[in-house]
Structures are given as structure tokens and as C-alpha cells.
Amino acid sequence: MTTYLNVARYHLVQRVDYLVLPWAILVLVFGADAAILALLPTGHRANLYVGGLGALFIVGFVLGLLSVARSLPFGLALGISRRSYYLGTAVLAVALAAVAGVVVTVGQALERATGGWGLRMEFFRVPYILDGPWYLTWLTAFVVFTLLFVYGMWFGLVYRRWNLVGLVAFIAAQITVMLVGAAAATWAHGWQDIGHFFTALSAAGLTGLLAALTAVLLAGGFTTMRRLTV
């Protein structure tokens, strides 16, 4: 475990990237959304969901990618094993995700207490996904951030192992799978059933589904890492 923590500390040499950038971007997006809504008449309209919170999770994906694409070669040159590097980076992802969950949970509580920041703005509340009790909000934000960070790591590993051609092929393969799935659903007239499935799925159930997907992505990235040469 000490080795994994040391790997996490190795990443934190880039303190601005991991400890400042996510929250700075979140504040910037929040300010932009608030400024736009301040120009609109509140009247008796319902609260508006602005979608800016997604920026935090996109940053998580980018950090996951950079943690491998940029920092891996020097880490291995220091004598860190591939397994330790991968799992230590995953520990960093979990730590950042835990903090992200706290930020989202506290922000959501303040948002509710202030009636949408006095602007009828829903920034931290995401309908259906982040719209439950505080503990479920924290867990869901934690899982989503971890998922995207790990997904970004896998992209970085693919790039490191097969260069740009491999990365393009990796993206193309995923797009192909989605297109085949969409075509199959259309051919079988299954879109209504798919809609019913997600509609009937509770927020806790969705979080569990995303956690399972995170485990799959972790396994895929670990398999790619084992045979990687730098």
C-alpha cells in the first residue's frame, strides 16, 4: 500500500493539475452559468438545470489520460512496476473522486438552502442522477468521477502502447460497437424497452451499474498495462 501511495504522491508533483485545476474550472463554469442566469428574469419559473457540473467530470477524464500519457515513462524509469503504477494511479483517482463527491454534496445542500443560489439555478443537482439523499449524491458523484478518470487512463494506455493509430482504432471500435448496438435495437424495435429499463431503474441502481462498468474499465486498463512497453 505504501508503494501505491508513493505513486499517488508522484503524480501530485503536478499539484496545479490535480489539486487546483478541477476546482478552478468548476468555479469558472459556475460563475459563467450564474452570470447568464442573472440576466434572465426569475419570475415564477421553475429552477433551471444548467449542466455546468459536467465540466468537473470531463476534467477527471483528462487527468486520467494525462496520468498515463504524460507521466508514465518517467515513472517506469524510476523503477516503479507497471502494476504498482497502475494501482497507485487508481488510488489517486479514488482520493480525487472522494473529494469531488464531497464538493458536489455540499454544493447541492447549499443550492437547496438558497433556492438555487437566489437565481433558481440547479448546478449541483442533476435530475435523476444526482437528485437523492446526500449519501447517494456523494456515492454517485464518486463513482462517476472514478469511472471517467479510469476511462481516461485506458485511453492513455492505448496511446502509449499503440500510438495514434491504435488510439484512433480504439475510438473507432467503440463507435462501431455503439452503432451496431443502436442498429440492433432499432431492428428489434427495442428502444422502448431500453427506455423503460432506465426509467424503472432507481438512482441507486444506476450507480451500481456505473460501478460495475468502472470495474470493467479497470480490468481492461490493467490488461493493457501489463503488456505495455515504453
Taking the sheet with the most strands, its summary is: 2 strands, parallel
The strand order across the widest sheet is 1-2
- Shape descriptor reads globular
**Class inferred from helices and paired strands:** mainly alpha
Evaluate the radius of gyration.
20 Å
Order of helices and strands: HHEHHHHEHHH
| Strand content bin | under 5%
| Oligomeric assembly | single chain
| Mean model confidence by pLDDT | 90
- For the terminal residues, how far apart are their CA atoms? 25 Å
The count of helical stretches stands at: 9
Instruction: Please estimate the helix content.
Output: over 70%
Number of strands: 2
| Unreliable sequence segments | none
In brief:
The protein is mainly alpha-helical. It has helices spanning 2-11, 15-38, 54-69, 72-77, 82-113, 116-120, 134-187, 191-200, 203-226, and strands spanning 48-49, 121-122.
Structure characteristics:
230 residues, mainly alpha, 79% helix, globular
